[in-house]
Amino acid sequence: MKAVSKEEAQKVAVNFVRKKRSAERIDVSIIEEKDDSWIIQGTCPIDLEGHPWTEKFEAVINNKGKIKFTDFSLL
What CATH number is associated with residue 47? Predict the structure, then answer.
């Protein structure tokens, strides 16, 4: 079975964050491979009760292109 590439893992993470947070701009800052998974980290803007905030995210994508874990937190 073909493992998912770095670019494919990034697309999966960005599309997930875009749908989950309704964000147009998503900035990916770190992409690393660890234990047969890709770890994607970055930030996206959100609107919290009328106030703009920046939220950081982390998504772990397995070698089949499926999301194993996600975490969101305000900066």
Answer: 3.10.450.630
